[in-house]
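Single Protein Entry

Contents — chain, fold
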Amino acid sequence: MTNPYGFPPNSVAVVLGTRPEIVKLSQIIHLLGEAALVVHTGQHYDPNLSDVFFRDLGLANPDMFLKVGGVSRGQQIGAAVTSLDELLAETKPLAVLVQGDTNSVAAGAIAANARNVFLCHIEAGLRSRDWGMPEEHNRVITDHLSSLCCAPTETAVANLAAEGITGDRVVLTGNTVVEAVNALLPADRSDILAKFGVQSGRFVLSTFHRPENVDDPEAYSSILSELAAIPLPVLLPLHPRSVARAEAFGLGPLLEKLVVVEPVGYRDFLALEAEAALMISDSGGIAEEVSVLKRPLVVVRNSTERPEVMGTFAVRVGAGPEISREAGRLLDAGWEHLQTIPTPYGDGSASHRSLEALAAGLVSH
């Protein structure tokens, strides 16, 4: 498939490695068509966190798979940079495009910089100012190495300006999550609700994966206890690693009080989000999705890089009794009042705007 931007075949190396990157880059990959050279680093190598999302999103398998998962952060970034450096030398793309703040993003940025290849960062400018988060290091490094920063909100633009990243290097695009949700949310969700044994508006959907929550026995125990105290069924898709951590910490009895299932495909997960009474999660992507789906969210994290949804669609708490307290408050308030609040992430054209900016940037580069 050709593209309307004038990019030659295999001229834009799209580097990704995790579920959120696959989701948020799906529409960009579709728009790029044969210009996209899709490189999967293997950072998330479980089929439930990779293959299923390519299928759900109507994407072909990646052109390259680097298999750098399952090692430490430093080893992961180092191995990915080495492999990407060789790939860029061989394929000579016009641009490298990355999204977000993962180790794969940092590796893509470093490799592009080393080969002097134009670097486009989708979802640039997010800041938590929490240097205990590896993602904060990844996103700052990538922004400062980028030739083009596609910022999702005015807040992100201001964050970049505060660090001296301004002018033609920055374009306000909105967030590609909006078009991903709009394109992939199933219209008929009754079968999906039946599949998971829940009723519309009468269950809580929860996810947890961040080390600050699932690698800390005290925090993890507190979170599961708080979820178990909520007077609605709590559906908890949980990665096998997180299940294993819970078992190792002796938290199996707490898991038994929840509806624990394996990771869910993106379409099914969106359907569940759209029908849940409440979300409780440490996911940054979910904080964005609820603003499109108009559902309330309790964010359980020490910090957030998405302040735009706080106070409207979401509230942030730490691991502890605030979880059930805020959950009760939001359940009492319902979600009807959220229907009239616009998402802060744009009108659903971020993928197109980003590629227009990339085409313009390459002309002037």
Notes: The radius of gyration is 20 Å. Residues 78 and 244 are 28 Å apart (CA to CA).
